[in-house]
Amino acid sequence: MPHRNGSGIALLADPTRRRLIAALAIRPAQPSMLADLFDLSRFTVSRQLRLLREAELVVGRRLQIDGRGILYTVNPRRHGQITAWLAGTDVGRPIDPAAAAGIPPGRRAANDPWREYRLGPRP
How far apart are CA 102 and CA 98, in angstroms? Predict the structure, then answer.
């Protein structure tokens, strides 16, 4: 069985991790939000985020409201390396995480947290 878990920046060779990084570059998110966005299990998203966190590509901060949830974002110290690695792939194109996940517009929730980034602020 091939070993798909590289180290450091090589983790971005996996398309699921690239999609997670792209979504987190737009705005910080909790694993449950990312799981809903990409129609993945929370376990899968949490595992991928753990790998990215251990490689220091993303950072997680506990929510101050209850201290239970974790909000993930791209590690600002690694932003340049991530951008350089992704150069020539999807960098510079408008990112629509729901469309990248293959979610048709009719299936998106009315309270879609990514709406502002796709359509702009509400009037």
Answer: 6
pTM check: above 0.85: no
d(CA 14, CA 37): 18
Element (H, E) at 58: strand 58-62
* Distance of alpha carbon 21 from alpha carbon 106, whole angstroms: 25
CA 61 – CA 73 distance, rounded (Å): 9
Helix axes 15-26, 79-86, angle to 10 degrees: 130
User: Which residue, 107, 45, 56, is CA-closest to 79?
Assistant: 56
- Are 26 and 114 within 8 A, CB to CB? yes
- Give the CA distances from residue 40 to residues 34, 37, 54, in Å, rounded to whole numbers and listed in that order: 8, 8, 21
Structure confidence by residue, pLDDT tens digits, 70-84: 999 999 888 777 777
Q: What is the pLDDT of residues 7-65, one digit of tens each?
A: 577 788 888 998 999 899 888 999 999 999 888 999 999 999 999 999 889 999 988 77
